[in-house]
Amino acid sequence: MANVIDIVSLYPKDMNIYGDSGNVLTIKRRLELYGYEPRVHAYNQGDDWPERVDMILGGGGQDTGQKKIISDFYARADLLRGLAADGVPMLMICGLYQLFGEYFETIDGTRLDGIGVFGAYTIGRDVRMIGNLVEHSEDFGQIVGYENHSGQTFLREGTQSLGRVEQEGRGNNGEDHTEGARVDNVIGTYMHGSLLPKNPAISDFLIRAAAERRYGGFAPQSTAEQQTELARLDQFAQEARRVAIT
Ligand code: GLN
What we know:
Layout: E1 4-10, H1 21-33, E2 37-43, E3 55-58, H2 63-75, H3 77-85, E4 90-93, H4 94-99, E5 103-105, E6 111-113, E7 120-137, E8 141-155, E9 163-165, E10 178-179, E11 181-183, E12 186-189, H5 195-198, H6 200-215, H7 224-244
Parallel strand pairs: 1-2, 1-3, 3-4, 4-12, 5-7
Antiparallel strand pairs: 5-6, 7-8, 7-9, 9-10, 11-12
The protein binds glutamine (GLN).
The site of glutamine (GLN) has 11 residues, from helix 4 and strand 8.
């Protein structure tokens, strides 16, 4: 029997824009191709928290979406912080990346406190940062995606960014060339795209971390057919990345 990996898709109803659900589909498919059995649990406000969690994927959302989830999010803050500290791999895009920081002050002056997994804060501005985003990351090489946000995020001293913006894009704030944040196995980023179909290295990092934490190691058991399919997905990723790089 295949080893199960339990994935939480965090607030997919309100926090899932610009195709971020593609991240969940990608993780699910790659896990299957590696011979694991993925179980995806959609978690929305008021739902029961799943018994077992090996990975958490969260997407972006409008300011209004962020306000809708915020009280449930606070109720889950200790749990999420605990799982992050315990090494659960997580990927938080844009709106949820902002809320994994210390606070987000929206353009209308509302302050939404975050859960402080990242030493970072975000200020809403009246200029949107939109377009392809290409960055270099020490851990993952070149990362390619698409950004669309008006919040400017600033990392506190000592907070590691996910990458450094190269020729394309604005990144965390359009000023200091940083993009995203990383703490242990938790990644926050402005990269939509969807991110994971275009960046297999990040998918595989999340999968490996989940398998190692639950089973003590990552032991893919792909058939020849599955290996061919994985190679095809990597080929698609290359093509999608090329389109984004001008
Ligand atoms: N509302 C946030 C902003 O505009 C997040 C947007 C998003 O998730 N794309 O900064």
